[in-house]
Amino acid sequence: MDEATLKEVIVLHRGFLDGVPGCKRADLRNASLKGLQAPNAKLHNALLSGADLTGAAFVRGDFSGSDMFGAVMRRANLAGCNFFRADLRGTKFTGARLGGADFREADMRPGEIRNAGMQRTQSVDMSDAVLDKSNFSRANMTESNLEGASLRNSNLSEAELVAVNLSGADLEGANLELARLKNAVMAGTNLKGASLRGADLEGAVLRNVDVSVCDMKGARLDNCRVFLGIRDLKEDLKVKVQRHMKWLATDGKEGEQADFSGADLSGIDFQYADLSVAKFTGANLEKCNLGKSFLTMADFTGANLTGASFWGADMRGVILMNADLASVNMADADLSFVNILSTRGDRRVVRFPSTLTGANLDKAICTNANFSGARLDGVSFETAATDGAIFVTPEADEPESPEEASSDA
Fold first, then answer.
1. Among 348, 275, 338, 357, which residue's Cα sits nearest to residue 308?
2. Longest alpha-carbon distance in the chain
3. Calpha distance 341→409 (Å, rounded)
4. Among 4-8, 63-67, 340-344, where is mean pLDDT lowest?
5. What's the pLDDT at 94?
6. What is the C-alpha separation between 340 and 190, in angstroms, rounded?
7. 3-state SS string over the chain?
8. What is the arithmetic mean of pLDDT over 68-97?
9. Do 298 and 276 contact (CB within 8 A), yes or no?
10. Are 65 and 85 in contact (CB under 8 A)?
11. How far is 133 from 150, CA to CA, in rounded Å?
């Protein structure tokens, strides 16, 4: 379809809405509108299911109440558009510009898409879309993909965000009050200045998320994996952890890898914290709470970890060489190997095992812990509780050195 034909369809649709005889409702189902420009288009209650608006420009268009089931709007400029109560199930907004758009009460659940006789479930995809100052109040966005999207100062109050992917999304200043974020994935999400008052975060995973800069008063956090302890850290330690979070979330482009070597961190609550690849050589972490934390390839060489809790922690590829692990709780912890890319230029995937060589596990609780492939030279489990623990002989593969491996993590 060309722009002239599209404008004619829009004129007839407007007449239809006004009750003008001879006019008809816009039927653009499965139409190709790629790259077309129709600013301020009035397409309220139009039929656009399956339409392809890739790269199109419908700035300030009115799509309220329209059927846009399964429509494709990749890289489209839809800034300021009105999608109030529109049917947007299974739509694709990847990389679209949607700043200031109105999505109130829109239906953005996964859609059952039929293609070549096959039926599949397709979630709404708004990854990398620009959605700043948009209004999603009471919208149903269940299972939507908002990875890397910008939602600064947007209104998502009372929105259904069940199982939504907000990894790497920018929600600075956003309103998520009373939003339902059950089982949401929010890895590296920016919540600076955001309000999650009364939000339901049951079962959500907030990995590498700094919640000290947002308001979570009254939020439901049952089974939520979130590092709340950051709020109680001393300022210098908090800054170091914040910079490490940023370093992990941006693959090393921003922030800085944390080095706690020789530091006194005794008794600190690091539950659910992501301290992967951090350095703790010679540090004192006596009676620290590291339960359910992410410690992949962290280096605890020679550290004092007596009485610390690693219950359910992700400790794949961790280095605990000559560490004092007396009376630690590692029940249900995963100390198996981690797969990394070789730095030798051949892009080979190698296994990096956990290393406990020379560690002291006197009276440690290791029930149901996974030591598959771990290096346990000189380690005695004689006084440790090991019921249900998994021990598998390491593979012959040579791992990268700790320094090389850290650069890949």
1. 275
2. 90
3. 9
4. 340-344
5. 95
6. 27
7. CCHHHHHHHHHHHHHHHCCCCCCCCCECCCCECCCCECCCCECCCCECCCCECCCCECCCCECCCCECCCCECCCCECCCCECCCCECCCCECCCCECCCCECCCCECCCEEEEECCEEEEECCECCCCECCCCECCCCECCCCECCCCECCCCECCCCECCCCECCCCECCCCECCCCECCCCECCCCECCCCECCCCECCCCEECCCCHHHCECCCCECCCCEECHHHHHCCHHHHHHHHHHHHHHHCCCCCCCCCECCCCECCCCECCCCECCCCECCCCECCCCECCCCECCCCECCCCECCCCECCCCECCCCECCCCECCCCECCCCECCCEEEECCCCCCCEEEECCECCCCECCCCECCCCECCCCECCCCCCCCCECCCCECCCCCCCCCCCHHHHHHHC
8. 96
9. yes
10. yes
11. 9
Return the pLDDT at 286.
Answer: 97
Whose structure tokens read 């920018």?
170
Tokens of 371: 């030591």
Residue 266 CB coordination number (10 Å): 15
Tokens of 219: 């939020």
